[in-house]
Design a protein that fits this description.
297 residues, alpha+beta, elongated, binds zinc ion
Length: 297
């Protein structure tokens, strides 16, 4: 559930409290978190490490230690992290791990569905591990419409599926793909390789705008996503399509539709995001607004 804006929000909050701190004592109470490695051994490995940097790639939160090792945290569906003074966190049946820091505070990890993961990587393993799983970072300058086009070329999969693939662009999930496609006025079922240059530019802009909007609202809290101080984000109040079936489109008033693409529930505006844009253009050119539409091209 947490996507790039949510994980980045967590990173920004955790960085100032973790950087420079030493992991004094670590307790991992869930074998699934560190699978296939023994949680007790992983906890021992982490003890004594001092945090150099809290980083992020895609949906991975990366705690980089001065030793060069890294702890990769993936929140998956329902993972969240809390930071608080020692002893001040309420008892929580879903708490899976807790790190005692050397300044007397704790970072606790909670996860209701238990799909989240903690992996400790050696210095030489980090780049390769992430490089094999993730494409470029959509908010970095190196992410361009041209680069996006290269990633989508030769892909017959629907746009929605291609964008959910973390190797296309890192950090997008079900929410922000739907939001980006609405902004780009592209149908989620369009074969990914069929976009022209203008459409690629729209998609590039749409991805960035959707993510930046999410970041500005500290992410979206639908169920379990929380900031490290326990508060929630507010992006869920500003979705354009996600979860808004039968509500009017903000752009044209058509009711938002819901469908399934690549096994994922998908929301879109049937008017703004037509399945066949050529047909939509032909039918709109028959309307009286033709001259205005042409002059705006
Ligand atoms: Zn619309």
């Amino acid at each position: 559930m947490p996507e790039l804006p949510e994980v980045e929000t967590v990173r920004r909050r955790l960085a100032p409290v973790l950087e420079g701190r030493r992991f004094e004592q670590v307790e991992i109470a869930d074998v699934r978190l560190t699978r296939p490695f023994d949680p007790v051994e992983v906890a021992r490995e982490l003890e004594g490490e001092r945090v150099a940097l809290v980083d992020r790639r895609g949906k991975y939160l990366i705690v980089r230690f001065e030793s060069g090792r890294a702890l990769l945290v993936h929140l998956r569906m329902t993972g969240s992290l809390r930071h608080a003074a020692r002893g001040s966190l309420p008892a929580d049946p879903h708490q899976r791990a807790v790190v005692n820091l050397d300044d007397g505070s704790d970072v606790a990890y909670r996860d209701v569905r238990r799909f989240g993961t903690w992996h400790v990587l050696e210095p030489h393993e980090v780049d390769d591990y992430l490089g094999r799983r993730l494409g470029g970072e959509p908010l970095e300058r190196t992410f361009t419409a041209k680069r996006l086009g290269e990633r989508l070329a030769d892909r017959r999969a629907p746009l929605k599926a291609a964008l959910l693939d973390q190797r296309t662009v890192a950090g997008l999930g079900n929410i922000y793909v739907d939001e980006a496609l609405w902004r780009a006025r592209l149908n989620p079922l369009r074969p990914a390789a069929t976009l022209d240059r203008n459409e690629l530019r729209r998609l590039h802009r749409g991805i960035r705008a959707a993510l930046e909007h999410g970041l500005a609202r500290q992410g979206s809290t639908l169920r379990d996503y929380r900031l490290p101080d326990g508060s929630g984000g507010s992006m869920q109040d500003e979705f354009r399509v996600y979860g808004r079936r039968d509500e009017p489109c903000d752009r044209c008033g058509t009711l938002i539709a819901r469908t399934q693409v690549a096994g994922r529930t998908t929301w879109f505006c049937p008017t703004c995001q037509p399945e066949d844009p050529a047909q939509a253009a032909r039918s709109s050119s028959r309307r009286p607004s033709r001259s205005r539409r042409q002059s705006s091209v």
